[in-house]
Amino acid sequence: MEERRKQGIIALLKGIETGEPESVAVVNEQQYIQHNPLTREGDVGLAELFARLAKTNPRVSIIRIFADGDFIFAHTEYDFSSEKICFEVFRFDGDQAVEHWDNLQLKQPANLSGHTMTDGETRVLDKHLTEANRQHVSDFIQTVMINRQFNQLSSFIAPAEYIEHNPQLEDNLSVLETHLARQSDKGDALTEYRQLHRTFAEGNFVLTQCEGQKLGYATAFYDLFRLDNGKIVEHWDTTETIPPRSDWVNQNGKF
């Protein structure tokens, strides 16, 4: 079931590139709930939309894809009118996807450690540790990112092994701690995680879906972590400003 669902989502996302009408068969369009606030529901069928998009020569790359119960989550790269990095999450009911969330950020150059927003490990390992890894990352988000106990970083992250893919950071916990503290200096946070909405996990990979603020704007933070021996050893993310409600074309909300 998990592999069939993964293959269905891969075909769906590549359908944006190819325009193949069969690619949308994995979606139940009558029940589909769309959480991208700028994507309208129901006025145009997906097959018709994909056929239109294919004429613009888009490029879609699926870098990583995972399964967690009724959820499939993927790390992708899109090249439409601009290059963007995205996390996609789909909820399934049986063989079809019935709900969708995403978070996109403009692609940026490699960071000071030479890592891009998408390179790095892709293999799913340690499936027997899925729940332990999920809990570890949930505790990290609550303790460090929401409660701002930045001195606890080394309790969750393996310093000697850590690989950072955020374009503004590097493979150095001291740099990360300084960056986080500066963002929260004097209680006037430039970047603030306020709520962990969902955590998705398969083996050594965990994706978190958080809400907060950046530079005074409502923001969605998606963070993907790879773990080894019970500690975080690699991190990717996307950050996206949530548009004001007046601009939404559906009322399902970002989360």
Word description of this protein:
- By secondary structure, the protein is an alpha+beta fold.
- It has 2 domains: 2-107, Roll (Nuclear Transport Factor 2, Chain: A); 127-241, Nuclear Transport Factor 2, Chain: A (Roll), CATH 3.10.450.50.
- Helices cover 23% and strands 35% of the residues.
- It is built from 5 helices and 10 strands; from the N terminus they run H-E-H-E-E-E-E-H-H-E-H-E-E-E-E.
- The strands form 2 sheets. A 5-stranded mixed sheet has the order 1-5-4-3-2, covered by helices on one side. A 5-stranded mixed sheet has the order 6-10-9-8-7, with helices on one face.
- Helix 1 (2-18) packs across helix 2.
- The chain is globular and about 50 Å long.
- The two termini are 26 Å apart.
- The mean pLDDT is 93.
